[in-house]
Amino acid sequence: MIGSSACTMADPAGCSMVVQLLWILLAAAAGAGVEEVIAGIARGERGALRSAYDSFAGRAMAIALRILGSTEEAEEVVQDTFVEIWRRAAEYRPERGTPGSWIAAMARSRAIDRLRERTRAENTMRTLAAEPPQDPEPPPSEAAVRQQERTRVRTALAVLPAEQRRTVELAYFGGLTQSEIARATGEALGTVKTRIRLGMEKLAEALLEAPP
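and the corresponding structure tokens:
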């Protein structure tokens, strides 16, 4: 009929009541199917996890990318999200929301956590690059001891390769975890762990060899 609205799923207003009811039932059935997928994950079914990934990874990726602005970090967030889904599927409650909204909220939370970690790491690196604040003036004897200790540490650090020295400074003077250092520097976590271990071994040797 001329002037009548088109009958589409996106705009069902032009459809008959029977068609609208059928679409409502189909949507409900689809939601129930996804809930069964989550239940399957809770039972430890890896096939169910793959089904959930196929259905929701794209949405989780879009959320993480919008928050982080980095494809690489967003992909890591998606991976973390589905690891968490695997661990926490038994906690899902249909009365609190759809599986899609539950997964989306989880992805958003992981992305915000990653953004906070990145900001913290960047702030720490800027602080380390700046001139350290001066300590209150200690008594002359204590000042001499502190100066001697600082000289020994600076001398020992100078022996380390640049990559090891930077990693040790971020970990032990900047207070960053190994994972935060890996994200801040773009290095693999295993590389960071190795550099810290080797750097601390060389630092200990240099301090022991240096005269008191």
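(Above: one complete record from the training split.) Residues 64 and 74 are 5 Å apart (CA to CA).
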